[in-house]
Amino acid sequence: MTHEGNFVLKLYVTGKTPRSERAIENLRRICVHELDERYEMVVIDILEHPESAEEEKILATPTLIKALPPPLRRIIGDLTDKEKVLLGLDLYRSPDKDRSRSH
């Protein structure tokens, strides 16, 4: 189902709390604006699937795991800080890197 170059993102949440809902909405927004249709997003509620959380060693929620493409990355929090999320997904270049290329 996934194609080469696609992102596989797993978001672990705990129930339908405001923080969980905010993380889901923030991730959806980022995916739509930054990844077009090159992503598969899976939301896993650890209350319903505690074994999944145990397998992935989830210690806090919300936790986003970028499973593909490598390297595997984890981002903890409600994903409000878009720049931090983009850095974690390897989609954002820091301004310092951009400046060094232009000189």
TrEMBL record:
In which domain of life is the source organism classified? Bacteria
Matching SMART domains: KaiB
Pfam families listed in its UniProt record: KaiB
Which InterPro entries does the UniProt entry name for this protein? KaiB-like, KaiB_domain, Thioredoxin-like_sf
* KaiB domain boundaries: 10-91
UniProt cross-references to SUPFAM superfamilies, sorted A to Z: Thioredoxin-like
Please name the NCBIfam families in this protein's record: PRK09301.1
Stated name of the protein: Circadian clock protein KaiB
Organism per entry: Candidatus Magnetaquiglobus chichijimensis
Gene name, please?
kaiB_2
